[in-house]
Amino acid sequence: MGPDDSIGTQVETRKGSLPTREWVTRGSAPRILVAEDQVEMRTLLRRALKRRGYDVVEAPDGPGLINAIVDGLMEKETQVPDLIVTDVRMPGFSGMEVLARLRREGWTTPVILITAFGDAQLHDDAALLGASRVLNKPFAMEDLCDAVEALVPPRR
């Protein structure tokens, strides 16, 4: 996955699935959608990713994550996130439920799950659903940023 560098060009669309990013603007920062119900943690994630050159959209819970995705699809120029970072346990919908739904709908957007409850079963289930990475809390912010950069390098 990776956005095309040309202006207003439709990119990678698999038959029967939604593209991970329909329209891109030259020079725009990759968009990271962060869903975390703890305000302090969400703020730390946003600040760290913005310092690395990302455009960050925040969601406070599972329904907020869904709304942020829908809002991006409804924009004049579609703004689908290049990557999603989501907590596993959140009010409304869990990060796992959202990941499962995205994959059922054919989305290939990379997803990094973060959790304070990362047992072996959760890691196995996340891998089966196609999570790009699972980070157990507490984690070093550098580890998260490195994982994000490996999946979606910032434009410089």
CATH level-3 fold name? Rossmann fold
CATH superfamily: Response regulator
The CATH class is identified as Alpha Beta
Order of helices and strands: EHEHEHEHEH
**Helix proportion:** 25-40%
Number of strands: 5
Strand order of the largest sheet: 2-1-3-4-5
Helix/strand structural class: alpha/beta
Helix run count: 5
Q: What is the typical, i.e. mean, pLDDT?
A: 85
Domain Response regulatory: 31-152
InterPro entries: Bact_response_regulator (IPR050595), CheY-like_superfamily (IPR011006), Sig_transdc_resp-reg_receiver (IPR001789)
Keywords: Phosphoprotein
Modified residues (4-aspartylphosphate): 87
Summarize the structure.
It contains five helices and five strands, in the order E-H-E-H-E-H-E-H-E-H.
What does this structure look like?
This protein is of the alpha/beta class and 156 residues long. The protein has a single domain, classed as Response regulator (Rossmann fold), CATH 3.40.50. The protein is 37% helix and 15% strand. It has helices at residues 39-51, 62-74, 95-104, 120-129, 141-151; strands spanning 31-35, 55-59, 83-87, 111-115, 133-136. Strands 2-1-3-4-5 form a five-stranded parallel β-sheet, sandwiched between helices. Helix 4 links the parallel strand 4 (111-115) and strand 5 (133-136). The model is unreliable at 1-26 (pLDDT under 50). This is Response regulator.
